[in-house]
Every structure is written in C-alpha cells, then in structure tokens.
Specification:
The chain is an alpha/beta fold. The chain is 34% helix and 26% strand.
C-alpha cells in the first residue's frame, strides 16, 4: 500500500468502487470483484451474504469474476460455495495465495465449486485469467 496505491492491488489495477464491510474490503474493477477478507475471520454464507447482496446490487446483471486475494489468514466454509455457484452472473472464482499451505487449502476448495475456479500466486495472474474468462463467456 502507498499513497499512490491505497490498497493491496498491483499497479495498473484500479478499483471503480470500494466496499468496506465486516468481512473485509471488496474492490470492484469493472466486471472483476476482488475480496480481501480480514485477518482471523471465518468467511461463510452467514456473514458473507449481506456483502454478496451489496456486491450484486453494484454489479447489476453483468457477468463477473470473483478473485479472493488472500493477503490475510482466515477460514472459509467450503460447503458455502454451493450458494455462490447459484449466482447466475458469477462466471468463475480465482484464489490468490502465495503460500504452499494456502495453495493446498485452495486445492481442497476446488472440489466444492462447480464453475471455473483456479489458484494463482499473484493478483496480476488472476486478473488476466478473469478477463480471459469474461471474454470467453461473452463470446459463447
């Protein structure tokens, strides 16, 4: 983070809107939503639903990709992916985690989500994948 870039996103990725919630910060970058959950929380349907509703209101009916930028340590209830999967405008999910343990946890989560879902080491890689996925979904 710097004065020029007041978030954890790489240079060149600039949010159109930022939502701060009880679960963390949500950055809206056109059709890509980047979530940075707070340290130590357990992210679940129960505490994430109000954020999901706010996000869907902001996104409207346009297709989008969710990027989980895991800059903090927190827990996820993978059974709750079934709720995210039902969002018709959600095209896919990317998990960004630089650690081997984070990657092993994310690999387990892949089994709980039926839409495209991939693990990356950097937000730049995830962002490029998301843009490609969105391009494919609009040309299909």
């Amino acid at each position: 983070m710097s004065a020029k870039n007041p978030h954890n996103l790489p240079d060149g990725i600039s949010p159109d809107h930022v939502l701060e919630s009880t679960v963390g910060k949500i950055y809206f970058c056109k059709n890509i939503v980047i979530v940075e959950a707070k340290e130590g929380i357990t992210l679940s349907y129960k505490n994430g639903f109000p954020v999901l509703i706010s996000g869907l209101q902001h996104m409207g009916t346009k297709p989008f990709v969710y990027i989980s930028n895991r800059v903090h340590s927190y827990s996820v209830n993978p059974n709750d992916y079934k709720y995210l999967e039902k969002v018709p405008t959600l095209m896919g999910l990317a998990i960004v985690t630089p650690t081997e343990l984070g990657k092993k946890n994310a690999e387990m989560e892949l089994n709980f989500f039926g839409k495209p879902m991939t693990i990356f080491s950097t937000v730049d890689e995830a962002f490029a994948w998301a843009e490609n996925l969105l391009t494919q979904s609009t040309t299909s």
